[in-house]
């Protein structure tokens, strides 16, 4: 019994120190090197925090870029998807309603031009980003409402595109909150 008990206790203590102390401290240290220093990257506008760059928010006004739909109504404490498959009639009804709403607010855009991300919820329900195509399909609506040239809005999109890490890990994306803050700053 002694043969197994002592090594087991030693191993338990060693793993407790490594996995309960050293590893969490190392992860916290790495977090301090990220934007927001491990607390999330906050977005400021007019001296106040308007949101976090890594949590999606609902934008439905025509003068703003719309976010990706959320299955959890953008509640960060209840992150999750709908778990409805593409053949589920309720899911198809929701997607078709989103397509109809998008087409109503974006005349000139055809059903085929709408990127899937604008009518389907993400797995977490909190996706803060769109593809550049998801943002650019909304430019005509925003330009018309705000009285800004489409070229100016496209230049804002191009300036806020986050490229894939090392040019190959992940897709190009734009943060919707950052885009909308840039639009509001343009009004000045």
Q: What do you see in this structure?
A:
The protein is mainly alpha-helical and 188 residues long. It folds into 2 domains: 1-33; 42-186, no CATH class. Helix content is 44%, strand content 7%. The strands form 2 sheets. The protein has a two-stranded antiparallel ribbon. β1 and β2 form a beta hairpin. α5 packs across α6 (176-186). It is elongated. The N and C termini lie far apart (77 Å).
Keywords:
188 residues; mainly alpha; 2 domains; two-stranded antiparallel ribbon; 4 strands; 44% helix
Task: Give the helices and strands, then pairings.
Elements: H1 2-32, E1 42-45, E2 48-52, H2 89-105, E3 129-130, H3 132-136, H4 139-146, H5 150-160, E4 174-175, H6 176-186
Antiparallel strand pairs: 1-2, 3-4
Helix pairs in contact: 5-6
In short:
With 188 residues, the chain is mainly α. It has helices at residues 2-32, 89-105, 132-136, 139-146, 150-160, 176-186, and strands spanning 42-45, 48-52, 129-130, 174-175.
- Report the radius of gyration as a whole number of Å: 22 Å
Q: Overall 3D geometry? A: elongated
Helix content: 40-55%
Given helix and strand content, the structural type is mainly alpha
The topology string of helices and strands comes to: HEEHEHHHEH
- Uncertain runs are none
Number of DSSP strand runs: 4
Look at the structure and give the mean pLDDT: 88
Number of domains: 2
**DSSP helical segment count:** 6
Instruction: Please report which band the strand proportion falls in: under 5%, 5-15%, 15-25%, 25-35%, 35-45% or over 45%.
Output: 5-15%
Spatial strand arrangement across the major sheet: 1-2
Largest sheet properties: 2 strands, antiparallel
Please report the distance between the alpha carbons of the first and last residues: 77 Å
């Amino acid at each position: 019994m002694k043969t197994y008990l002592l090594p087991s206790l030693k191993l338990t203590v060693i793993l407790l120190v490594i996995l309960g102390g050293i590893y969490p401290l190392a992860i916290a240290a790495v977090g301090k090197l990220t934007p927001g220093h491990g607390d999330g990257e906050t977005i400021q506008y007019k001296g106040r925090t308007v949101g976090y760059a890594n949590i999606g928010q609902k934008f439905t006004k025509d003068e703003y870029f719309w976010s990706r739909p959320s299955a959890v109504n953008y509640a960060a404490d209840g992150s999750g998807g709908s778990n409805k498959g593409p053949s589920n009639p309720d899911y198809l009804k929701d997607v078709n309603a989103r397509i109809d709403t998008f087409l109503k607010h974006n005349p000139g855009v055809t059903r085929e031009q709408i990127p899937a991300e604008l009518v389907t919820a993400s797995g977490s329900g909190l996706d803060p980003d769109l593809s550049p195509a998801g943002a650019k399909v909304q430019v005509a609506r925003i330009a018309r409402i705000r009285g800004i040239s489409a070229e100016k809005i496209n230049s804002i999109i191009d300036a806020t595109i986050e490229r894939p890490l090392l040019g190959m890990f992940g897709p190009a994306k734009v943060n919707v909150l950052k885009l909308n803050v840039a639009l509001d700053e343009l009004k000045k």
